[in-house]
Amino acid sequence: MVQMPAGLTRQLAGAIVAGAILGAIITALIFVVVQRDDGTADASPAAGRADPGTAMCAAIPVANQVLPSIVKISASRGAQAGTGSGQIVRAGGYILTNDHVISVAAGGGNVSVQYTDGHSSGAVIVGRDPSTDLAVLKASDAAKDFPVIGLGSSAALQVGQPVVALGAPLGLASTVTSGIVSALDRYVPVPGDGVTHHLIGAIQTDAAINPGNSGGALVDCAGRLVGVNAAIATVPNAAGVSGGGSVGLGFAIPVDLAKPITDDLIRTGRPGHPTTGLQVQEISPTGLFVLAVDTAGPAAKAGLKTGDIITKIGNEPAVSSEQIVVATLTKKVGDTLEVTYVRAGTTATTTLTLAAP
């Protein structure tokens, strides 16, 4: 599990609430359209690719290899519509993207994908995970004759390593940009439509990504998927409104986090994140008030009761209910979570063993 620096986590979380992060605003990368009433890709090293220690990848062979696996995604429901990006990750037409790209179409909308040769296919939503901002689609034509993208490992990434971003910024399909890994292990909470998307262990890159790049690929110099582009930080104007374009601060979901979630979504239609069996409410500055406890869940088995006040989660002060969400996103069934709480004026510590949802 990636351990997030506590200070960075608090800075980012606070900055999102305030709308600024060192003068920047975090935004998701869906390109919103306003409507009126009226086979596996070859993941072997691309010819002429850059050494990981050099400044840039050889973008031409990477583009030739990876673009056939990239799609432009259009999602709509009624007058609401938008476009984003995705990549074919499994034979049969399974496409990985961001949840915020297709959320508008959930519950009765329409989704379609456009391939690099320009032709389109309808698609259905196989599964969604709003918490990590991931979703899987299945193309109606099974993406025949288009390759599955090769998978890399985000664990092997190094700061300064060259990468390439591919997608459909502003609806412009088959766009390729390049840059480097600027930083690793970022925690970036991104406000969504009634939900907070948690980018856990995010890859920060200066490769130009813009609205519409959401869900698209971040690949290494061998054309292997290492991240799913999801958000950017932009500089606001004097009125505090985001400029919307790239300033070299992009964030991608690491593939090592995305892959098991993708597998769960394809297999069951839902993520397999473990549960604590807790419902809590923030009571600043005291901590988290326990509203309810699943009688058969981990919290009850660990001795927590309704009315307890959680003051620490792990080694961190309990200040937000999102801390519990993040903890479950970074752990698996059977992992433990230490919780400090107060009951009738007495402080105690217990350990929850996370269970299947």
TrEMBL record:
<dbReference type="InterPro" id="IPR051201">
    <property type="entry name" value="Chloro_Bact_Ser_Proteases"/>
</dbReference>
<protein>
    <submittedName>
        <fullName>Putative serine protease PepD</fullName>
    </submittedName>
</protein>
<dbReference type="InterPro" id="IPR043504">
    <property type="entry name" value="Peptidase_S1_PA_chymotrypsin"/>
</dbReference>
<dbReference type="InterPro" id="IPR036034">
    <property type="entry name" value="PDZ_sf"/>
</dbReference>
<dbReference type="GO" id="GO:0004252">
    <property type="term" value="F:serine-type endopeptidase activity"/>
</dbReference>
<keyword id="KW-0378">Hydrolase</keyword>
<feature type="transmembrane region" description="Helical">
    <location>
        <begin position="12"/>
        <end position="34"/>
    </location>
</feature>
<keyword id="KW-1133">Transmembrane helix</keyword>
<keyword id="KW-0472">Membrane</keyword>
<dbReference type="GO" id="GO:0006508">
    <property type="term" value="P:proteolysis"/>
</dbReference>
<feature type="domain" description="PDZ">
    <location>
        <begin position="265"/>
        <end position="345"/>
    </location>
</feature>
<dbReference type="Pfam" id="PF13365">
    <property type="entry name" value="Trypsin_2"/>
</dbReference>
<keyword id="KW-0812">Transmembrane</keyword>
<dbReference type="InterPro" id="IPR001940">
    <property type="entry name" value="Peptidase_S1C"/>
</dbReference>
<comment type="similarity">
    <text>Belongs to the peptidase S1C family.</text>
</comment>
<dbReference type="InterPro" id="IPR001478">
    <property type="entry name" value="PDZ"/>
</dbReference>
<dbReference type="Pfam" id="PF13180">
    <property type="entry name" value="PDZ_2"/>
</dbReference>
<dbReference type="InterPro" id="IPR009003">
    <property type="entry name" value="Peptidase_S1_PA"/>
</dbReference>
<keyword id="KW-0645">Protease</keyword>
